[in-house]
Amino acid sequence: MGRYCSGFEEGNRLTTLASWRVPFYSKKCLRFSAGPFAQTTYLSGKRPRYCQTWAMHRMKIRVLMPSVDTPCRLHYTTSVLIDGHLAIDTGGLPYLRTVEEQRQVDHILLTHSHIDHIGGLPIFIDNTYQPTPQCPEIYAGSATWDSLEKHIFNDLIWPNLDRIGGTEAPFYRKHVVDAHRSFTVGKYQVTPIPMEHIVPTLGYLLEEETGNVLFAWDTAPFPEFVKMIDSISNLKAIFLDASFPNKLGWLAEKSQHTTPSQFGRMVEQVPSNVRVIAMHLKPGHHDELIEELQQLNLPNVEVACGEAVYEI
Asked: Could you tell me which of 95, 91, 71, 59 has the C-alpha nearest to residue 217?
């Protein structure tokens, strides 16, 4: 296995960070345990052979975790921020350091309607709203939009923002996306890909000139995975579900998530030069999941670390 976040010490000193080819610096994380660079732990004892090519890659993916103790290695909710402007899911989105930083996020892709993925959306919109025609562009499947409008923006859980904002000062702009139908966000071509989950769920493939990245969390293993991976040219990384330890395989099956043993069988079909970052580890089983992922002994696997920035 590649690397993982082993933990953090008091005083905002980072002991191990899963940043990839460049060190991660934070205004609150300036002292490292091993000189000026974050310590990197390779669980397999092998350096992945593609570590020296980082200068070619430009996509910056930041893992967002809501926590009063920043940074945090536990996956309490799920969201990532790409290049400071494009978010996938909203778990940690409304807890970015400043409102100005949040207002830089102008596009959001939602995978599905579960609260750990959409729960930050109302707070984010409330934090960043300005009464102008400019507003965040939000993309989701029809089932997710249906859940949001019926159960969140319903004047009970949260105000009906469509009713309040209207067309002159909208709170957000709605985009309904369909599986396998690509669209463009900035420099990226985005393709929604159906996942295997208990509610309709989309993963997202982001493509650009320097490489492509697949985001595929909240899913059980599905038969099309290998065929899908083989069809993606210039694939650089996969952010992949690894939710429950093997002993809770029954729970993973009923909730349609993935265990480390299932994760390993999926990753064995992935080319060894593709980074695979494990996401969505249940916090109450984090250490056990780390151990089971380590036992896979796959050198291209690492575990997503809260507030890490991945250069792809």
From this structure: 91
pLDDT in tens, the chain (312 residues): 565 554 433 332 222 333 322 222 233 322 222 222 233 333 444 444 333 333 444 799 999 877 656 566 778 888 999 999 999 999 889 888 899 999 999 999 999 999 999 999 999 999 999 999 999 999 999 999 999 999 999 999 999 999 999 888 999 999 999 999 999 999 999 999 999 999 999 999 999 998 999 999 999 999 889 999 999 999 999 999 999 999 999 999 999 999 999 999 999 999 999 999 999 999 999 999 999 999 999 999 999 987 678 998
Residues with Cβ within 8 Å of 36's Cβ and at least 6 positions away in sequence, in order, are 23
CB 307 within 8 A of CB 8: no
In which order are the strands placed within the sheet that holds 183-185?
183-185, 188-194, 202-208, 211-216, 235-241, 275-279, 301-303
User: Whose structure tokens read 């980074």?
Assistant: 275
Classify 126 as helix, strand or coil. Answer: helix
* Whole-angstrom Cα Rg for the chain: 19
Length of the chain equals 312
CA distance 169 to 150: 22
Nearest to 13 by CA among 28, 1, 23, 35: 28
Q: Is 4 helix (H, G, I), strand (E, B) or coil?
A: coil
Concatenated DSSP letters for 228-278? HHHH-TTEEEEEEE--S-GGGHHHHHHHT---HHHHHHHHTTS-TTSEEEE
DSSP of 22-46: S---BTTB--BSSTTS-----TTS-
Amino acid letter for position 27: K
How far is Cα 73 from Cα 86, in angstroms, rounded to an integer? Answer: 22
- Residue 246: count of CB within 10 angstroms of its CB: 16
Asked if 235 and 229 count as a contact pair (C-beta separation under 8 A), the reply is: yes
Which whole-number Å values give the CA distances from 242 to 218, 260, 283, in the listed order? 8, 6, 12
* Residue whose entry in the numeric block shows the structure tokens 């060190």: 23
Specify the pTM.
0.81
